[in-house]
Specification:
Six copies of one chain form a homohexamer. Chain A is α+β, with helices and mostly antiparallel strands. Chain A has two helices and four strands; from the N terminus they run E-H-E-E-E-H. At the A-E interface, strand 1 and helix 1 of A face strand 1 and helix 1 of E. Strand 1 of chain B pairs antiparallel with strand 1 of chain C, so a sheet runs across the interface.
Chain lengths: ~70, ~70, ~70, ~70, ~70, ~70
């Protein structure tokens, strides 16, 4: 019955999601010794302001890095 | 305190979501013998490339089925 | 495909969980007009220190209420 | 490793999400005595028909309240 | 950042969980073209009364099947 | 309505969970400008074989580190 929820940054192509679903289902079924037919995968995509590490969202981090690059060029 | 998260394929109407919330809250409250007021339900909708069974996304499955129908008409 | 995750306080009997699963699956299938066979339900049970409202865990709230009852009897 | 998933009603500004991420990461790291660097936060936003209390979605509740205000003015 | 939550029936061995984590992390990292270092996997195990299909818990299903086997031997 | 799910390594004391719930609820309510009363927090604890980074469970990582320490003492 593996039910797998994957949280990803938004922006993956259809092709990438299909490759991901196929690869993870196969890996899980083999490792658990269950039929692939029992594996369900759900993908939740997150915007850049909806994921953070150490309290800094991905959006803010990108902004900070862009600003740092600009400063380092001064 | 039941907190219920429901993952659905995207595309339900407002009417259907309201019916779903009402029916599930009533069923859960009755089965658990708690006040309906304590039941919270969250719905997450998934796109066709965000749900897969056996490594095949709902989108790919629909494509495959459409192709099979076309071939069977040849 | 409804995949439903239910968070409950720990301590439900087997009988209650079976009644809950049956009732919620039927309610969801009917409201969404899908086969009950497509409904999967997962239950996560939480201990009294693992659920809180307004920053007060269920365990602490019970302690506070017990203390209040004792005081009101003084 | 705290991995924190926050379900919010949709509509928060970028500024509010950044403030939320910063504040919750700091609070969790301090309370758990771990490095903020280990704290990951994921935000899931819900539409008004995707959250319900007592079987009444936030959207329906708002409609009911608007109707009640209208009636009380009659 | 893939953060992957896997719901499994309880009872997997340590060896199986390690194999599962390694295989799924590798599959996800390759399909998404990200460093394996960014992949986090969380496993939630479910008891037989905590998972149901079509409103029948895994525990009840096993009971029903055992009873059917007994009857078919009569 | 913030509903917050926190995944932690198992082993926190009651005291730590209560401090965590209080601190996170206060931080979230302030950042979102909502009443603390609306904040619900759910804690899920994970065993050392149920969390992995880069395909290596916390249990395996601890074993590897213990083995490395032993070797470095040789």
């Amino acid at each position: 019955m593996p039910i797998i929820q994957m949280n990803l940054m938004a922006g993956r192509s259809v092709e990438q999601k299909r490759r991901l679903a196929a690869a993870v289902a196969e890996a899980a079924a083999k490792a658990l010794d269950v039929s692939p037919q029992t594996v369900r995968i759900l993908i939740h995509e997150l915007g850049v302001e909806d994921f953070s590490v150490a309290g800094v969202t991905a959006g803010l981090k990108a902004e900070n890095e862009a600003a740092a690059r600009t400063h380092s060029r001064d």
